[in-house]
Amino acid sequence: MLRNMEYLKENLLPYDGEAFFVQKAVKNVSFAQIYNAIAWRQDSITLYGKTHPLPRLQAWYADPGLDYTYSRIKLEPLPWSELLLQIKKQVEDLSGHQFNSVLCNLYRDGRDKNSWHRDNEPELGTNPVIASLSFGEARKFSLRHLETKERID
Asked: Which residues are bridge partners to 102 per DSSP?
């Protein structure tokens, strides 16, 4: 549950979890600040035996020693920047949860995207809490139930 009752809204998920939509949850941070402060990188992903550039740029920031691997892409943590620590504190104050890492993703245009995924890597633990922030242009964010395939946009 969100700690700050001012932002508390109805849970978007009908069952099996919680998801809350909060507009303007982070104050005094712009897309340009984030864009310029992050050490973006282009990784590659292998699907069905073919290697392709990942259709987004990314950067992994985390507490020391917290490597993260997904789809055979290993990310070693970059140290927290002052800007990311500022954002982290605002999200922690709002959510009531502590976070030890952030995967920054840059979707450059309408062709950049990510396929369905579960955020179930062992490094994230059982039932991880995920804070997903978007800066810049609005885009659709979709959730899909693993078993029923029900979708919420």
From this structure: 61
Domain boundaries, the chain: 1-136
Alpha-carbon dihedral 77, 28, 33, 9, rounded to 10 degrees: 60
pLDDT in tens, 82-115: 999 999 999 999 888 999 999 998 988 877 877 7
The pLDDT value given to residue 4? 53
Assign domain 1-136 to its CATH architecture.
Sandwich (2.60)
Mean pLDDT of the chain: 86
For the stretch 71-87, what's the b/e string if a residue is b when 16 or more beta carbons lie within 10 angstroms of its beta carbon? eeeebebbebeeebebb
